[in-house]
Amino acid sequence: MTPALAERFSLDGRTALVTGASGALGARFTETLAGAGAAVVLAARRTGPMEALRDRLTAQGARAAVVAMDVTDAASVDAALAQAEAALGPIDLIVNNSGIAEPAASLDQPDADWNRVFAINVDGARRLSIAAVRRLVALGRPGSIVNVASILGLRQGAGVTAYAASKAALVQMTRQHALEWARHGIRVNALAPGYIETGINHDFFATDAGQAQIRRIPQRRLGLPEELDGALLLLASDAGSFITGSVLVVDGGHLVSPL
């Protein structure tokens, strides 16, 4: 990579906040952004699971902080942003990674579970994005938002109607926010992973049902968390400066396979 190209992907001088940073993918996103030079804020409801990662990043020379944030609570979001800004300065890169699934057949799913999925996956991303963008607009600073969607926001799957519908809503919200906020120099895009192997889903994919799911992926394997790195950095950095309102799919070809 030439120095000029490397500079385009660099996040030096940027400050990123990643929600759901206590989970496997959130932790990976945080490490990737820090590795590209960003100061990073790890955000989740429980701070304990994130402290070891913060300490490791700090030992490696990164600037990192941990904040408690409940994306379903406006006061929590505002307080966490204020704490993050006090520690590391204005936040100009948001990765909306918090999400839950609550899998169930539609006829069996309680309203409370459906509402909770939307409260976190859609309303939470909206709440944080708006709070962060208001701060950036007031400062006259550009920024970038990456919403972590899913291929299930673009296709169907059995027993995941709430999750799929929420991710479809997140995809459309990404496009709407990109349209509205382009005039402020703020780009908004979505990263749509397919099936990525993590510690949480490892046991399922070892079962017969899980293996059958893998056989539906044209590459006949699960993705690895590090295979999302390039897509994330493209959307987050100046390398993607003319990309907004887009959905970048990383799924081993799953979307082009038959249902």
TrEMBL record:
PANTHER family: BLL7886 PROTEIN, SHORT-CHAIN DEHYDROGENASES/REDUCTASES FAMILY MEMBER. Belongs to the short-chain dehydrogenases/reductases (SDR) family. GO terms for biological process: fatty acid elongation. The lineage of its organism: Bacteria, Pseudomonadati, Pseudomonadota, Alphaproteobacteria, Rhodobacterales. PROSITE patterns: ADH_SHORT. It holds the Pfam family adh_short_C2. GO terms for molecular function: oxidoreductase activity, acting on the CH-OH group of donors, NAD or NADP as acceptor. This is NAD(P)-dependent dehydrogenase, short-chain alcohol dehydrogenase family. Residues 14-194 form the Ketoreductase domain.
